[in-house]
Amino acid sequence: TMQVNATVSNCRVGSFTDLFNGGGLIEYSDLGPISGQETTVNFPELARSIGYAQGTIRRCDIRGCVDGTFVSGGSLTFEECWFHGHYKAASDPGQGGSASHCDSIQISKGTGIRITRCRIDTIPWEIGETFDQWDSGAWPLPASAYNQAGQPVGSQCIIIKPVNTTNVIDDVVIDGCRIAGYLNGNMILIQKNTAIPTNITVTNCQIDPRGLNSSTGSLGRAILTVGSGVSNPTWTNNTLAVDYTINGNTYLAGSTI
User: Fold this and answer.
1) Contact status, residue 131 vs residue 208, Cβ threshold 8 Å
2) Partners of 244 in the beta sheet?
3) Residue 33 CB coordination number (10 Å)
4) Residue 171 burial class via C-beta count within 10 angstroms: exposed 0-12, middle 13-18, buried 19 and up
5) Which end of the chain is more exposed for a tag (fewer CB within 10 A), N or C?
6) Residue 67: which of 147, 155, 146 has the closest Cα?
């Protein structure tokens, strides 16, 4: 737990971490279990790496957790961080004993949240750190890209959804990020729970949808899904990071989406 006005720099934070009471900074640090020890860390310590209240996480490597971060209040800022290498399990207590699914960033409450110039690779740690380390266009995906239920390990790269009927989510900006994932869900998902997320902006991002478990539908829906009763986010200057084909249509890298 990090307290008010504390700074952590050039450290390894190997367990469950929260920022409380509005003043922390974590920078140039590794957040998550030591490489190779993902399966030996207890689930409460893997469930998330960063959450709660206010503070800034800058240039950190966030890996090895079921979910990269769970923002449940305040106004957190993530700057130039790398979310990747999620841990998956055959029996996950958080899923009622069924197989893990992983989200890189979950936002359930908060205002003034900023995700800036981050790299978000919603992929399992066994198959390498990024898409660039293997041919992600090869189908079927290798067995290690799937959880024990036979589904791709990821659900969402980013999910914005209140966990109850009263949580407020407002003024969220995702700017200049590169977003990719091995997903059986959505790259960005925005939903309500009676409480409705408002003032969401996605801008200047590069999207790599090659790991989506979908060969049909529209490019837009594959990348962004907005639930019923929720306003579309402000969406500007977002482009494809790679060539991508869906439903027989090929879109070139650099295309505006």
Assistant:
1) yes
2) 251
3) 24
4) middle
5) N
6) 155
Q: What is the model's pTM?
A: 0.85
Count CA atoms closer than 13 A to 147's CA, side-chain side: 25
Q: Provide the pLDDT confidence category of residue 132 given band limits of 50, 70 and 90.
A: low
* Rounded CA separation 147/143 (Å): 8
Residue 11 scores a pLDDT above 70: yes
Look at residue 131 and give its three-state secondary structure.
helix
Distance separating alpha carbons of residues 155 and 219, to the nearest angstrom = 17
Angle, CA 128 vertex, CA 123 and CA 132 arms, to 5°: 85
The closest of 234, 211, 103, 213 to 159, measured between CA atoms, is 103
For 83-110, how does the pLDDT look when each residue is reduced to its tens digit (9 = 90+)?
887 777 667 776 777 767 778 898 988 8
Give yes or no for residue 75 having a pLDDT over 80.
yes
CB 17 within 8 A of CB 35: no
Across the range 56-85, mean pLDDT stands at: 85
Phi, psi (rounded to 5 degrees) for 213: -85, 65
| Bridge partners for 120 per DSSP | 83, 179
Max CA separation in the chain (angstroms): 53
What 8-state DSSP symbol labels residue 96? T
**C-beta atoms surrounding 140 within 10 Å:** 8
Query: C-alpha angle 76/231/51, rounded to 5°?
Result: 20
Q: 249 or 158: which carries more pLDDT confidence?
A: 158
Q: How far apart are CA 119 and CA 163, in angstroms?
A: 25
- The rounded distance, in Å, linking the Cα atoms of 36 and 26 is 23
